[in-house]
């Protein structure tokens, strides 16, 4: 059974609470709402989260900016983890004495970290898309609420510009993310092969794979760097508009 955080509080206690205590109280409410709607799916959970955050003063554009930063950081981490895995793979196939079993175990651990990093990147990109869809849908609806035609045109122009920047940024993120699996797949195969063939002959047989994977990682790093740069540009534009 899911345990819902207890958030009961007397009204006078909330009034007398410090800003930090009020924030903690609201965060508990966010968690409680998310746990309640979780059985109905991630989308419902995310909508409830955004609604609660807006009541705390965080607009959807603030949440979007925060999630883009999180996705950018996840890509940076995944890039480093995959580079580390490649480096360890090179050390294993270039084995020249030492504890081969220990080197293999380290390689396997590096690969697991890369797999986790890839999952995090996919999750963070999905989070970005979720709040962006909600923001743009809300923005489109609110355009019809203007009585002043000039203000409506300005808002429409800003929406179009923001959508265009977002499309460029999301496209770069997805291109980079799609490069990850083609890199992990051969690494995954080689680590699995070595698990049952940990000897010098097996290492010699897979040395050629190192060059291929190295080229793939090099392209992945380039795509991720472009994606990270696009994310930084988008974040800067969002923060500039908020000033």
Could you please describe the fold and organization of this structure?
The structure is a single chain. The protein is mainly α. It folds into two domains: 58 residues, no CATH class; 184 residues, Methane Monooxygenase Hydroxylase, Chain G, domain 1 (Up-down Bundle), CATH 1.20.58. 85% of the residues lie in helices and 0% in strands. The protein is elongated and about 75 Å long. The two termini are 45 Å apart.
Number of strands: 0
- Assess the beta-strand content as a share of residues: under 5%
Query: What shape does the CA trace take?
Result: elongated
| CATH class designation of the largest domain | Mainly Alpha
Most strands sheet = none
How large is the radius of gyration?
24 Å
Quaternary status of these chains? single chain
Task: Summarize the amount of helix as a percent range.
Answer: over 70%
User: What is the CA-CA span between the terminal residues?
Assistant: 45 Å
| Overall pLDDT metric | 84
CATH architecture of the largest domain: Up-down Bundle
Number of helices: 8
Low-confidence stretches: 1-9, 32-42
What structural class is derived from the secondary structure elements?
mainly alpha
String of helices and strands: HHHHHHHH
């Amino acid at each position: 059974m899911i345990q819902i955080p207890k958030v009961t509080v007397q009204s006078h206690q909330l009034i007398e609470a410090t800003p930090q205590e009020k924030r903690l109280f609201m965060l508990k409410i966010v968690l409680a709402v998310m746990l309640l709607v979780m059985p109905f799916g991630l989308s419902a959970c995310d909508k409830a989260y955004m609604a609660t955050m807006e009541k705390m003063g965080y607009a959807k554009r603030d949440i979007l900016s925060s999630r883009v930063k999180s996705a950018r950081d996840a890509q940076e981490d995944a890039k480093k983890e995959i580079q580390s895995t490649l480096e360890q793979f090179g050390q294993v196939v270039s084995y020249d004495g030492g504890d081969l079993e220990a080197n293999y175990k380290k390689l396997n651990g590096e690969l697991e970290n890369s797999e986790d990093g890839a999952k995090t990147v996919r999750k963070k990109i999905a989070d970005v898309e979720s709040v962006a869809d909600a923001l743009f849908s809300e923005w489109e609806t609110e355009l019809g609420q203007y009585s002043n035609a000039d203000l409506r045109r300005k808002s429409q122009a800003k929406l179009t510009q923001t959508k265009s920047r977002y499309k460029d940024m999301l496209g770069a993120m997805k291109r980079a993310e799609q490069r990850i699996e083609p890199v992990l797949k051969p690494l995954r195969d080689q680590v699995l092969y070595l698990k049952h063939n940990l000897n010098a002959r097996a290492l010699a047989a897979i040395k050629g794979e190192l060059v291929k994977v190295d080229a793939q990682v090099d392209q992945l790093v380039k795509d991720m760097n472009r994606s990270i740069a696009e994310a930084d540009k988008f974040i800067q534009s969002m923060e500039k508009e908020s000033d």
